[in-house]
Amino acid sequence: MRAFNSKQHHDLKFEEVFESYKHQVYAQVYVIAKSEYAAEEITQEIFIKLWLNKDSLKDVKNLGGYIYTIARNYSLNYLRKAASDTRLVNELLRVAVTNDNNTEANMRVSECRKLISTAVSQLSPQRQLVYKLNKEDGLNYDEIATHLNLSRHTVKNHLMAALHFIGAYLAKNDVNPTLIAIFSLFYIN
């Protein structure tokens, strides 16, 4: 990203910042989010944040690094939030398999889902229930704890153990490392 020195910051206009960085921010976000829609939305959010804090930009010594960090953080936050949106997770899984045609990519994603299902079936009944309540029904730790009359800590431990088992099961079954990374990113937190 293009860097502005401190002297340039004093006379810097927001429009110049926007014009200088908009394409780079979009490209960076797109590489992380792998979605044109997300890249557009996140880029807009980033520049709104910069606009709202434009007076403080004059104190930033490395504007390019500052904007790069904001773009990275917004993109990663987007991916974390995507874990609760099944459609978005499915879309990211679909685009994660690169250099394959759509049929092959869909087959790999389908195989990965089957392996996850098989791994879940091998969990203890309590871990299966905690996993399904969290990942399929969308309940949080506290809701599951109340529902099952367990402590929040116990629920978290069951879920973490289940997720690590599933990740290891995928690796043992030669699942594409990209798909395992996406599973880990979305489900192991």
From TrEMBL:
<comment type="similarity">
    <text>Belongs to the sigma-70 factor family. ECF subfamily.</text>
</comment>
<dbReference type="InterPro" id="IPR013324">
    <property type="entry name" value="RNA_pol_sigma_r3/r4-like"/>
</dbReference>
<keyword id="KW-0804">Transcription</keyword>
<keyword id="KW-0731">Sigma factor</keyword>
<dbReference type="InterPro" id="IPR039425">
    <property type="entry name" value="RNA_pol_sigma-70-like"/>
</dbReference>
<dbReference type="InterPro" id="IPR014284">
    <property type="entry name" value="RNA_pol_sigma-70_dom"/>
</dbReference>
<dbReference type="InterPro" id="IPR013249">
    <property type="entry name" value="RNA_pol_sigma70_r4_t2"/>
</dbReference>
<dbReference type="Pfam" id="PF08281">
    <property type="entry name" value="Sigma70_r4_2"/>
</dbReference>
<feature type="domain" description="RNA polymerase sigma-70 region 2">
    <location>
        <begin position="18"/>
        <end position="83"/>
    </location>
</feature>
<feature type="domain" description="RNA polymerase sigma factor 70 region 4 type 2">
    <location>
        <begin position="115"/>
        <end position="163"/>
    </location>
</feature>
<dbReference type="InterPro" id="IPR007627">
    <property type="entry name" value="RNA_pol_sigma70_r2"/>
</dbReference>
<dbReference type="InterPro" id="IPR013325">
    <property type="entry name" value="RNA_pol_sigma_r2"/>
</dbReference>
<dbReference type="InterPro" id="IPR036388">
    <property type="entry name" value="WH-like_DNA-bd_sf"/>
</dbReference>
<protein>
    <submittedName>
        <fullName>Sigma-70 family RNA polymerase sigma factor</fullName>
    </submittedName>
</protein>
<keyword id="KW-0805">Transcription regulation</keyword>
<dbReference type="Pfam" id="PF04542">
    <property type="entry name" value="Sigma70_r2"/>
</dbReference>
